[in-house]
Design goal:
It contains 17 helices and no strands. With 388 residues, the chain is mainly alpha-helical. Helix 2 packs across helix 15 and helix 4 packs across helix 7.
Length: 388
């Protein structure tokens, strides 16, 4: 007699209660993604992100939390209903995202090509203006080319399609095989150029690391709660300390070299410190390990450390965060793909009518886009059409 899938996982049972900390974190990441994609610096949210150049990014967090929730939610499906039940739900969602992704790419492509033809400024970079439209359309529908600010949807389509197979391995305790597969994909991307597959290899490790962690979340949570109180406190303090140091170090190594790029470095002690920072930031090994256009080899491990600290902070101040900003963060986090899709439309359009300015104007534009998305969520605008 074969053991049931649920028996093979050997995990504590959990309730279906939503973990609001994950909604808060994902909502925060969506806000930063909107700021980075708008790319109107300086701005309020741009200060928090490090201009997308520090050791971790909001996009990595967005993929990770999404994968983590897939692992938590679909673990129940595959352990109780089997592969077919989990696959049906994941593939249905993948199919919906595919339709939306293709439709948006074609829409953005037509508008941007017309704008380029008539000499209208403001279209997003990366536009293919030379290929014949039919071959380009084939590349779009086969997920080989995406244009606009909704390109993440292409990756979600593929990741959601593959997720049932990885969950099937995890339910059979083959987590090491899953980990080796996703790590191998990351190393391949870090070590070479794979053309069309580049972004899929880049982002898959964050999504599928999240799936692995989410699948084992009940067990990890149970193990942590079983620890003595003093050890739990030590782990929390260590996680927050590591996360803070990583964030500050990344900001220092980004902004100080940029600040002194066209300024005279002071003399004395602080001048020596500045020179050391500039030297470290320019070091090829440092770039290859932690930066390299978000392809630094160690970034997935760094992200795990940062996530631990962020999660501890959010859980510690969850009630206060909910009172002050829950109306915004939870709305965006619980409807993350809807918010992502809608902000992509607004960002694509705003670039044709508004140009970057100073800190105040840029921040007003940024906040206005965010509030328009929030209002759409509040009014449930096109909820039956746009995936959430």
């Amino acid at each position: 007699m074969h053991p049931s899938p649920s028996a093979m996982t050997d995990q504590p049972k959990t309730t279906s209660k939503r973990i609001l900390a994950f909604d808060i974190l994902r909502g925060y990441f969506i806000l930063l993604i909107a700021s980075v994609h708008l790319h109107y610096y300086p701005s309020l949210l741009g200060l928090f992100d490090g201009r997308g150049q520090i050791w971790t990014s909001e996009a990595e967090g967005f993929f990770f939390i999404s994968g983590l929730l897939i692992g938590i939610i679909r673990r129940r499906d595959i352990t109780t209903g089997g592969f077919k039940v989990a696959a049906a739900k994941l593939w249905r969602r993948s199919g919906r995202l595919y339709v939306v992704s293709i439709a948006l790419s074609i829409l953005y492509l037509v508008i941007a090509r017309d704008a380029a033809f008539y000499g209208i400024a403001g279209f997003k970079e990366g536009l293919d203006q030379t290929s014949n439209f039919v071959p380009l359309l084939v590349r779009v529908v086969t997920l080989g080319y995406s244009y606009g600010w909704a390109d993440f949807l292409n990756y979600y389509v593929v990741f959601l399609f593959l997720s049932p197979f990885l969950l099937w391995l995890l339910v059979r305790r083959q987590w090491l095989i899953v980990l080796l597969l996703v790590a191998s994909g990351w190393v391949l991307r870090w070590s070479g150029d794979w053309g069309t597959f580049n972004p899929y290899l880049q982002w898959q490790i964050f999504f599928f690391m999240g799936v692995i962690l989410g699948f084992y979340w009940p067990r990890l949570e149970h193990a942590f709660r079983s620890l003595p109180s003093a050890r739990r406190k030590l782990i929390k303090v260590g996680a927050v300390t590591a996360s803070t140091l990583i964030y500050l170090s990344g900001m220092i190594l980004v902004f100080i070299p940029q600040y002194f790029e066209h300024r005279v470095v002071p003399g004395g002690f602080w001048g020596g410190v500045t020179h050391l920072i500039q030297t470290a930031a320019a070091n090829p090994w440092y770039q290859s390990m932690l930066v390299d256009g978000r392809l630094g080899l160690l970034r997935p491990l760094v992200w795990l450390m940062v996530l631990g600290g962020m999660y501890v902070i959010v859980r510690r101040f969850e009630s206060r965060i909910l009172r002050v900003a829950g109306w915004l963060l939870v709305a965006f986090g619980a409807n993350s793909l809807y918010a992502y899709i809608l902000q992509s439309v607004l960002l694509f359009g705003v670039a044709f009518v508004l140009v970057p300015s100073g800190f105040i104007i840029n921040s007003i534009i940024e906040i206005s886009i965010i509030m328009l998305v929030w209002l759409a969520i509040r009014k449930r605008f096109l909820f039956r059409i746009i995936p959430r």
